């Protein structure tokens, strides 16, 4: 009993921090869903709005656009980063030399400031005089894509950039996963006459399932919240082709000062991520039984 | 047993937090309701040094640093501290939260543009200045001009410190080579025609910053300087033919390749001054706020002189300037040192803001000597500036826009920009753009004023 109290006292500072900076704002944002808030007036600026904010969502033409863009963004970015990361991990793992250096190089974008990375990539993507289009013109493509300046290409450009930053993350995790696969499995397989490709698909990929699961969950959650890159590079444009949920929420909250509606949208985003994660957990149980 | 422990601890924490938050909420209420009484009893007898905090958006090295140093040297009993905030969405939010807070709040703050100011005034953050102005013996009419301050219910809540003047900047060499005289009285049709003549050898004839400065918005302001976004019924004025003409003219600039394309200008974050100085464009729409770049020949070395013309008009002979009075200074209604703050402001408006001229800010002071202003403006860069044309542009007696209303202003701007964008990028016709811009704007206004 005494020990218990001591234990709780030890975690109390942290618990208080969690409570005040996470739980309380969370509950307050839920409260805001049913409110209109002119936050400049402090707490007296709160007025009851009932379900107005929820009804508003049904009339919001950007919301649909943002959701589609979010879905496309996540559906392409996550597999792209995972597959590329896995390939690179397998290749680098074969290397005896330079393993650490290569790993560090690929990991660097992930730990670099997204703001700096975005600014550099906007220069690279410049349609008229950027290095990417200059290169494309040099190899004979006379009409290279407009990248960030084109409604058709802007989202693709953002996907490439974000996938590039995540490759380092998936690579490091996959390399750790690869090292955990017992060598005798491969030996046994090669004695049985399985070639490299078969070994990869029948041993490496299944053995990496827990790793893949972890990466998929974390990446889906973070790609759903993509914001910084959009804010710096395109501001949701051109023609709303890169409008995503997080940026939409930001506009509502800090440009139009509709805090209640922004909170409602945030909860929608949360629910979506929550459901996706729940489904993943369920399916993971199935995978594990499969083993 | 263990479960019980958990429950007790959680309930304890909850109770604690409720008490704590109730306390802080209570004290908030007290201070805001009690300030009225407090101000009157602020004792001036104590010999303590009063510290004033000013929040402004100009980097300290572009003037505010000198202003504060000048004041502090002569007023040991009132010491001023300048805090810079970045004048963008997040910076303004930072100022707003500082104003709500009780501990770190500024005494004096500067808002840029009526939209931010109106928000703050409506939330009761700005102190009424009339009495303070009287006490400080500040003559609003003589220094700034009664017409140049917008009153709310007959009261003054801010004083403008800067007069911004919009102008068109030219690469003089290119203008002379095209055989064109410097325009003085001109319309936007003339502008578009001149842009065509100034376009050659891969250099664009014009640059207007999208999406910040777009012709539909500019022409609307020119046609209706007072509350340009709203019509007489309080709905949006976006059905105006000024908007239609603005869209057409801007599209013409893109279609004739006199200007870099709309999406590229946004995605590459192109700025008017760098387009002009790096030789990408021969004519840009700018204003006095660009003077610090014009003077900076080290960072932007160039061979040519910069010449100036007033911004083009809706119709010939008019004298509307699309910029106007800015740097709106207010006193925090919760400040404990309002009188000291006012004496600083009256000093700043009569002489203090001269230190801001080299940074490109023209004082609102009517008595300021324009020749002296131009001299400080130009500094050592006279070899790179057509000084005569600058004097000419600055000496015109302009009509400036006035914005009293700001219902859904940010949203209206966004709507105008978006529908224009769709038209500029050939995603919809002019008719569609005009129809949607009006319908959406009216809807936004109605939703807000509901």
UniProtKB/TrEMBL annotation, chain A:
Give the residue spans that cross the bilayer: 7-34, 71-92, 104-124, 153-176, 212-233, 260-281
Q: Which UniProt keywords apply?
A: Cell membrane, Membrane, Transmembrane, Transmembrane helix, Transport
Q: Which GO terms describe its biological process?
A: transmembrane transport
An example of a Gene Ontology cellular component annotation for this protein is: plasma membrane
* All residue ranges annotated as the ABC transmembrane type-1 domain in the record: 67-280
Pfam families attached to this UniProt entry = BPD_transp_1 (PF00528)
Q: How does it sit in the membrane?
A: Multi-pass membrane protein
* Localization (cell): Cell membrane
Q: Which domain of life is it from?
A: Bacteria
What does the similarity note say?
Answer: Belongs to the binding-protein-dependent transport system permease family.
Q: What is this protein called?
A: Sugar ABC transporter permease
TrEMBL record, chain B:
**Coiled coil stretches, renumbered:** 420-447
Q: Where is the signal peptide?
A: 1-22
- State whether keyword Thylakoid applies: no
Q: SUPFAM superfamilies per the record? A: Periplasmic binding protein-like II
Origin superkingdom: Bacteria
Record's keyword terms, sorted = Coiled coil, Signal
- PANTHER family, sorted: ARABINOSE-BINDING PROTEIN-RELATED, DIACETYLCHITOBIOSE BINDING PROTEIN DASA
Q: What is this protein called?
A: Extracellular solute-binding protein
User: Which source organism?
Assistant: Paenibacillus roseus
Lineage of this protein's species? Bacteria, Bacillati, Bacillota, Bacilli, Bacillales
């Amino acid at each position: 009993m005494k020990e218990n109290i001591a234990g709780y006292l030890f975690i109390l500072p942290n618990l208080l921090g969690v409570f005040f900076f996470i739980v309380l704002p969370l509950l307050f944002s839920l409260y805001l869903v049913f409110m209109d808030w002119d936050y400049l007036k402090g707490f007296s600026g709160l007025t009851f709005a009932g379900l107005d904010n929820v009804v508003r969502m049904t009339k919001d033409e950007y919301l649909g656009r943002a959701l589609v863009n979010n879905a496309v963004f996540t559906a392409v970015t996550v597999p792209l980063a995972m597959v590329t990361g896995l390939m690179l991990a397998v290749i680098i793992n074969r290397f005896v030399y330079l393993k650490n250096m290569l790993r560090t190089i690929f990991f660097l974008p992930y730990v670099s400031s997204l703001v700096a990375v975005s600014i550099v990539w906007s220069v690279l993507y410049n349609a008229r005089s950027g290095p990417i289009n200059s290169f494309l013109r040099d190899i004979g493509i006379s009409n290279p894509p407009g990248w960030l300046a084109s409604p058709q290409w802007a989202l693709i450009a953002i996907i490439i950039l974000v996938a590039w930053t995540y490759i380092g993350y998936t690579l490091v995790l996959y390399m750790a996963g690869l090292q955990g696969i017992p060598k005798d499995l491969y030996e046994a397989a090669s004695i049985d006459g399985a070639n490299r490709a078969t070994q990869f698909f029948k041993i490496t990929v299944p053995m990496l399932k827990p790793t893949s699961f972890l990466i998929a969950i974390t990446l889906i959650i973070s790609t759903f919240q993509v914001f910084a890159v959009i804010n710096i590079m395109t501001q949701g444009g051109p023609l709303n082709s890169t409008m995503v949920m997080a940026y939409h929420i930001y506009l509502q909250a800090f440009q139009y000062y509709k805090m209640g509606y922004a909170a409602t949208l945030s909860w929608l985003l949360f629910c979506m991520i929550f459901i996706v994660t729940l489904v993943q957990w369920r399916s993971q149980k199935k995978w594990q039984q499969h083993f | 047993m263990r479960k019980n422990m958990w429950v007790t601890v959680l309930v304890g924490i909850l109770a604690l937090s409720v008490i704590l938050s109730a306390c802080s909420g209570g004290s908030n209420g007290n201070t805001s309701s009690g300030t009225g009484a407090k101000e009157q009893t602020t004792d001036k007898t104590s010999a303590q040094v009063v510290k004033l905090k000013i929040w402004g958006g100009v980097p300290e090295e572009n003037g505010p640093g000198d202003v504060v140093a000048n004041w502090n040297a002569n007023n040991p009993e009132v010491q001023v501290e300048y805090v810079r905030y970045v004048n963008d969405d997040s910076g303004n939010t930072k100022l707003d939260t500082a104003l709500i807070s009780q501990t770190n709040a500024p005494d004096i703050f500067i808002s840029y543009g009526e939209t931010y100011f109106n928000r703050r005034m409506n939330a009761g953050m700005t102190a009424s200045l009339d009495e303070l102005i009287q006490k400080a013996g500040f003559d609003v009419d003589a220094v700034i001009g009664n017409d140049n301050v917008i009153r709310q219910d007959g009261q003054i809540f801010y004083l403008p410190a800067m007069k911004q003047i919009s102008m068109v900047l030219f690469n003089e060499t290119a203008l002379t080579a095209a055989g064109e005289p410097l325009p003085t009285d001109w319309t936007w049709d003339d502008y578009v025609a001149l842009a065509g003549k100034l376009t050659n050898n891969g250099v664009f004839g014009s640059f207007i910053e999208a999406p910040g400065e777009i012709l539909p918005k500019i022409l609307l302001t020119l046609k209706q300087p007072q509350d340009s976004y709203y019509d007489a019924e309080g709905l949006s004025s976006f059905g105006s033919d000024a908007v239609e003409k603005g869209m057409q003219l801007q599209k013409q600039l893109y279609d004739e390749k006199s200007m870099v394309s709309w999406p590229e200008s946004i995605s590459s974050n192109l700025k008017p001054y760098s387009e002009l100085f790096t030789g990408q464009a021969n004519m840009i729409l700018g204003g006095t706020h660009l003077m610090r770049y014009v003077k900076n020949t080290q960072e932007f070395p160039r061979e040519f002189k910069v010449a100036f013309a007033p911004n083009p008009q809706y119709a010939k002979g008019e004298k509307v300037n699309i910029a106007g009075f800015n740097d709106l200074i207010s006193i925090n209604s919760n400040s404990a040192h309002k009188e000291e703050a006012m004496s600083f402001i009256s000093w700043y408006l009569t002489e203090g803001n001269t230190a801001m001229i080299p940074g490109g800010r023209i004082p609102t002071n009517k008595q300021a000597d324009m020749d002296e202003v131009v001299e400080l403006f130009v500094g050592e860069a006279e070899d790179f500036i057509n000084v005569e044309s600058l004097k000419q542009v600055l000496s015109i007696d302009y009509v400036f826009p006035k914005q009293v209303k700001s219902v859904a202003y940010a949203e209206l701007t966004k709507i105008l920009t978006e529908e224009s964008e769709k038209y500029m990028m050939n995603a919809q016709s002019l008719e569609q753009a005009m129809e949607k811009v009006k319908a959406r704007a009216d809807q936004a206004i109605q939703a807000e004023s509901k």
